[in-house]
Amino acid sequence: MLNYDFNIEGVIGKIKKLNAAKIALQFPEGLKVHATSIADEIESKTNSKVIILGDACYGACDIADQEMMNLVDIIVHFGHTPLPLNYKIPVIFVEAYSRINIEDSIKKSLKNLDGYNNIGLVTTTQHLNVLKKMKTILEKKGKKVFLKKGIGTSEGQVLGCNFSAIKNLPVDAYLFVGSGNFHPLGIKLFTKKPVIIADPYMGDVRSIDEFSDKILRVRFAKIVKASEANNFGIVVSSKEGQFRLELAYHLKEMIQKSGKKAVIIMMNSINPTLLMAYRELDAFVITACPRIAIDDANMYEKPLLTPQELEVVLDKRDWSNYEMDEIKYDENKNIINSI
Amino acid sequence: MLNYDFNIEGVIGKIKKLNAAKIALQFPEGLKVHATSIADEIESKTNSKVIILGDACYGACDIADQEMMNLVDIIVHFGHTPLPLNYKIPVIFVEAYSRINIEDSIKKSLKNLDGYNNIGLVTTTQHLNVLKKMKTILEKKGKKVFLKKGIGTSEGQVLGCNFSAIKNLPVDAYLFVGSGNFHPLGIKLFTKKPVIIADPYMGDVRSIDEFSDKILRVRFAKIVKASEANNFGIVVSSKEGQFRLELAYHLKEMIQKSGKKAVIIMMNSINPTLLMAYRELDAFVITACPRIAIDDANMYEKPLLTPQELEVVLDKRDWSNYEMDEIKYDENKNIINSI
């Protein structure tokens, strides 16, 4: 059995209904192993021609709609929920729900939540189908559960670049259900409240505090190192949902007004090899996916900063106001190009 | 002194003449080290805003015109000559001519050219400015030199995907001036004539024969291995000048008619990590840059084939008719999507 529920029958139904003859399939890295069998199934059960999109893809910020505009009728995008962007061709979003059992982890987390009555419940896309179940388990144990719809995200859903669903909730603590430390780190830094992680993959329940302290020490060190920088590279991603060129121009001006130099470098996916060529640059500011500067810091020789960290470097923001970077969407102006 | 002559003053003149306010600079990998200083110089001497394009770039097949259409007024592309493509915004091509001395190598090559009177002279973009000088040296030694303009290339110029400038010349041997073995390999395989390499970088003069024999043995081994394949991935690049989707459809049909399975996978740049996800595929056919299957063969776990090699695998072409892959351009139909 697959670890994910893709609902391919539903996809095939939509393809037939839309009468789509040419289809592109897009998968995040972890789901690409299923690409060829899904392509086979769709081709054999419809009259369509299928192209698998092979570029790396980490979010709905990165739909290949512009690229595929005149080549296919629809894109089927797996594993992410839509962002408030204007996609140029129809995109079927297939939420790949994990089949992992989350009950045990949540029950285990109750001990860590002892003493907290009002709980902010948060998860990521692949567990949204069991959000109600999570809530019920907590409520049965007497907790009051708070869920909030974010800007461009569902109730209780955070993304690596969007924490709007957890802000300003009247809660004592947050319970994050999912894997990894990045999302709970963001919740911690935005709310300053206790954050408990119920991780069904590792099977453990842990607090974010230790990780959060460690990351803040690393970030502080990067900021100190970047304070000596005279030449900055401001990196912009050309991915539709990460494209913050106006922000980059704004940061460039800020750097220049501080008597330092800056160039804007645009690329699709950012990696250490691509930045290696710019030997005379001392530090990079990443306006693309906010995870890159934090998660991938050790892969890069030179410090990578978020826009907010650059403000600290240039004395425009106090370290005590440290904030995670977010890519803010609103309904009128797809991407707000400022911090 | 720079190893290349970029003629930045000329570029600045053109920028002023075109009144360009927003400019993107694109460099191949080897020239990216000069990107920030050139960006600085252009910004300080014009009223323009400059963006450096940071994605990997290996040829004029890969101009970012579509991507930058509404973002900049012009692209300045360094190091490659234009291909017969319809660029969507003005592109200034800056041929980055190498300042390396080629005279000694050519003089040295005369010994190897002994006995051959009619010489086909060939080089790559970065030495086109000294083509006449090369010709003169050879002529002074009594050689008759043949040069031919290719389809989409200058007189005496070959690309990794375009050998039209060397075909059907009434010569006894070819002299290739430049680095690497890929281009002379192509000349050898297309013409079956002696090919001498005058390599000013290595400082040596050599025949392609040994390398050519070695590569043919490797290719034969890949073809034998791929003959056992049941599942093929046909890889298409979305780069404008490498985009051969129609060819991919044609190859898919050919594979299916042979009772085997095939999927089409589209990506921008091809690399081993991106192909690793497709565990159930046994071999890949690369319709993108013809160099990938040959030059990068050892980086990939599974055999990569050129379209012509696939024909050998499927018994549609005899091994004795082995041919390098080329991306053929004509003036009417940008890219000819067939072999």
Describe this protein with a few key phrases:
homodimer; 339 residues; alpha/beta; Rossmann fold; 3 domains; five-stranded mixed sheet; four-stranded parallel sheet; 11 helices; 17 strands; 30% helix; disordered C terminus
Task: Walk me through what this model shows.
Chain A is an alpha/beta fold and 339 residues long. The first copy, chain A, folds into 3 domains: 4-98, 3-Layer(aba) Sandwich (Rossmann fold), CATH 3.40.50.11840; 103-207, Rossmann fold; 219-321, Diphthamide synthesis DPH1/DPH2 domain 3 (Rossmann fold, 3-Layer(aba) Sandwich), CATH 3.40.50.11860. Chain A contains 11 helices and 17 strands. Chain A has a 5-stranded mixed β-sheet, sandwiched between helices. Chain A has a 4-stranded parallel β-sheet with strand order 3-2-4-5, covered by helices on one side. In chain A, strands 15-14-16-17 form a 4-stranded parallel β-sheet. In chain A, helix 2 (35-45) links the parallel strand 2 (22-26) and strand 3 (49-53). The radius of gyration of chain A is 21 Å and the shape is flat. Residues 331-339 of chain A have low confidence and may be disordered. Chain A binds chain B through residues 24, 29, 32-33, 35-37, 39-40, 49-56, 67, 71, 231, 233, 235-236, 238, 245, 249, 261, 263-268, 270, 274-275, 277-281, and chain B through 24, 29, 32-33, 35-37, 39-40, 49-56, 67, 71, 231, 233, 235-236, 238, 245, 249, 261, 263-268, 274-275, 277-281.
